[in-house]
């Protein structure tokens, strides 16, 4: 199977700091690819570069088309969507209003099925500040899913959620990938979520590629235990 979204030799420098160097990974339809690593490893920077938010080096391909120079807004309309590490919702707007704005940016699309699936139908007319934090993070996910993206880049969607809320989110991610045929990149520190939903993992440390493979192999890799789980313990 050829990959839907291919990132090749991605790099990024901030002044003298090499935030990312030589990172390649591919996303496939219906699969969740986990991107993990300690704080400052470059995970958010990777999403910033491949989504088109931040300039970097390397190449990005969608359906084998080189989209490296395609601007962010156009990538979004082509079906490359992302969420942010911190909630990107507007507290004073209703959830319906924010979804409408996102639909406009994504080039259209109706949101009814989406909000039903995520259990948000009853709070559509509430302002974002009036709903629970767990629901706010589901709104972040809903905003990223507006317009039926083909590629979904998620930056720590479970951060700050309770165990139960994280499990709900994990179930939604599995459904999005499998049923909606989305290629997902999941940056996440919650290892219960990572090991539950990811088919394959790439591990970064200090901007460098450390190891990649199936979760069970990565989990027992000595380099990962040292660099990642060692420092996280
Ligand atoms: N706008 C920026 N200007 C300068 N340096 C930056 C900028 N954004 C990130 N960095 C640096 O780049 C490196 C990678 O940061 P990044 O946020 O991508 O890491 P991360 O893996 O997402 O970490 P975390 O798990 O804490 O979210 C860090 O050293 C960070 O300080
Ligand atoms: Mg980050």
Automatic annotation (TrEMBL):
Q: Which InterPro entries match?
A: AAA+_ATPase, ABC_AA/LPS_Transport, ABC_transporter-like_ATP-bd, ABC_transporter-like_CS, BCA_ABC_TP_C, P-loop_NTPase
Which GO terms of the molecular function aspect are on file? ATP binding; ATP hydrolysis activity
> Which cellular component terms (GO) are annotated to the entry?
plasma membrane
SMART domains in the record, alphabetically?
Answer: AAA
Residue intervals of the ABC transporter domain: 5-231
Name the UniProt key words of this record, in alphabetical order: ATP-binding, Nucleotide-binding, Transport
What Gene3D superfamilies does its record include? P-loop containing nucleotide triphosphate hydrolases
Give the record's family classification: Belongs to the ABC transporter superfamily.
Q: What is this protein called?
A: ATP-binding cassette domain-containing protein
Q: Which organism is it from?
A: Xanthobacter dioxanivorans
């Amino acid at each position: 199977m050829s990959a839907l979204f291919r990132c090749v030799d991605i790099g990024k420098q901030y002044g003298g700091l090499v935030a990312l160097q030589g990172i390649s990974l591919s996303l496939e339809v219906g699969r969740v690819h986990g991107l993990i690593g300690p704080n400052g490893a470059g995970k958010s920077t990777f999403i910033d570069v491949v989504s088109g938010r931040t300039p970097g080096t390397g190449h990005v391909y969608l359906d084998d088309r080189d989209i490296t120079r395609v601007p962010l807004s156009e990538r979004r309309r082509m079906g490359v969507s992302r969420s942010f590490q911190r909630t990107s919702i507007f507290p004073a707007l209703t959830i319906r209003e924010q979804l409408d704005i996102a639909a406009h940016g994504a080039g259209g699309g109706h949101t009814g099925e989406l909000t039903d699936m995520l259990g948000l139908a009853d709070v559509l007319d509430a302002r974002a500040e009036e709903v629970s934090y767990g629901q706010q993070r589901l709104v972040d996910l809903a905003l990223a899913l507006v317009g039926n993206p083909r590629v979904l880049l998620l930056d720590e969607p479970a951060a700050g959620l309770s165990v139960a809320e994280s499990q709900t989110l994990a179930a939604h991610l599995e459904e999005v990938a499998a049923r909606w045929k989305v290629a997902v990149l999941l940056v996440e520190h919650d290892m219960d979520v990572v090991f539950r939903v990811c088919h394959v993992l790439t591990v970064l440390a200090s901007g460098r590629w450390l190891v990649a493979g199936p979760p069970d192999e990565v989990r027992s890799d000595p380099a990962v235990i040292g660099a990642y789980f060692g420092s996280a313990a």
